[in-house]
Design brief:
The protein is mostly helical. 54% of the residues lie in helices and 4% in strands. The strands form three sheets. It has a two-stranded antiparallel ribbon with strand order 1-2. Strands 3-4 form a two-stranded antiparallel sheet. The protein starts with 32 loop residues before the first strand and ends with a helix.
Length: 362
């Protein structure tokens, strides 16, 4: 369910049927839940659903009654459970496979339309923000180069904590590079680091698969470049929900890097990456929709990614006001969410790390 509104959005789809409250101002979105029986109306909570039942009862039961008749032959099971719903849209039911096949020409258009609606509900739902760094308990940055996956314990730590630990440990006489989380001594060689990663891969860890795939793609850490192995690891990582892997695959399919160009697969991985929380995949989706002339969808994507701190998306939303594609109210809400996300990812140690990086490049 989309929680971002633009000038052409239908606000009635995002209001509680009992109290009329809207979920469009929620930071995480998705605060309304549909009636599980008919899926026609939505509610804030259980109390609103119970209060609205007398008014909704007749409509809901009529909807349910329709579900107890085969859409092809009309036979009814009177609620006995012998009918099976269309697995695509769940809007109609059938006696058997024969009835379903016979009814497909008439049902095809409605089914595909409902499937697209259900997919969009998931696509435009605001994903949860990144988890917190396990050391400082500050939300992890959205950029992967601002955090590090540790092959010793499998934890992802922000670079601010790693930098602070390195500076503090360097002042001691018995300084040794140790993991700031599990206290394991750092790898003494590339070979040892790769072995640790491989053990994590065997344990089905998505981040380890992604990192090992990167090393194979670039021929780093003593590994011979192997694009086929890299692609295999990226796909495995993506299947386990790693949004960085989805984004990287979308780039590979777009640019023809390590695999042939494939626009359909590029879009597929961008969408899955965006739904998993990758702001860069989400931003790229917005760009693709903008180029295709789908302004409403483009700005929905950009507002969702700006909400969690994406600079490029925030700029695109601000430019949208000049083009008349975004309302001032939507821009203000997005700006507040953007600012809140930026503040939640800030820390003194991260600022010091950034300053040290800038100084080292000067």
């Amino acid at each position: 369910m989309s929680t971002i509104t633009t000038k052409n959005a239908d606000d009635s789809k995002h209001q509680c049927a009992a109290c009329g409250d809207s979920d469009d101002g929620g930071y995480y979105g998705g605060s309304l839940s549909a009636c599980a029986a008919c899926n026609l109306v939505k509610y804030c909570n259980r109390s609103c659903q119970v209060a609205h039942w007398p008014a909704h009862k007749e409509t809901c039961k009529k909807r349910l009654a329709k579900h107890h008749g085969c859409a092809a032959c009309g036979d009814s099971d009177d609620g006995g459970g012998s009918l099976k719903a269309c697995t695509g849209c769940n809007l109609v039911e059938y006696c058997n496979k024969t009835c379903q096949v016979a009814h497909w020409p008439a049902h095809k258009k409605a089914c595909k339309k409902r499937l697209a609606e259900l997919f969009d509900e998931q696509l435009f739902k605001q994903p949860p923000p990144n988890e917190d760094c396990p050391i400082c308990y500050v939300r992890l940055p959205i950029d992967s180069d601002q955090s590090t996956h540790k092959s010793c314990c499998g934890k992802t730590l922000c670079c601010g904590c790693l930098y602070a630990h390195t500076v503090a440990a360097a002042d001691t006489e018995r300084f040794k590079f140790k993991c700031v989380f599990c206290r394991t001594e750092g790898s003494s060689s590339d070979e040892e680091e790769i072995e640790r990663l491989k053990k994590r891969v065997e344990a089905n860890e998505a981040w380890a698969m992604y990192n090992l795939g990167t090393y194979y793609q670039l021929g780093m850490m003593g590994l011979r470049q192997d694009n086929a192995k890299a692609l295999e690891l990226y796909h495995k990582s993506a299947k386990l929900g790693n949004h960085h892997a989805h984004h990287n695959l979308s780039v590979c399919y777009r640019e023809g890097v390590i695999v042939g160009k494939n626009t359909r697969k590029e879009t597929y991985h961008k969408q899955l990456g965006a739904m998993a929380g990758d702001v860069h995949a989400r931003y790229n989706l917005g760009c693709a929709e903008f180029i295709a002339g789908n302004m409403d969808r483009a700005y929905k994507h950009w507002m969702i990614s700006a909400n969690v701190g994406c600079d490029l998306s925030m700029k695109a939303v601000q430019d949208g006001i000049k083009l008349g594609s975004v309302t001032k109210d939507d821009c203000a809400k997005t700006t507040r969410a953007y600012g809140k996300s930026i503040d939640e990812m800030k820390s003194d140690d991260r600022d010091r790390y950034d300053a040290a990086c800038i100084a080292s490049c000067a």
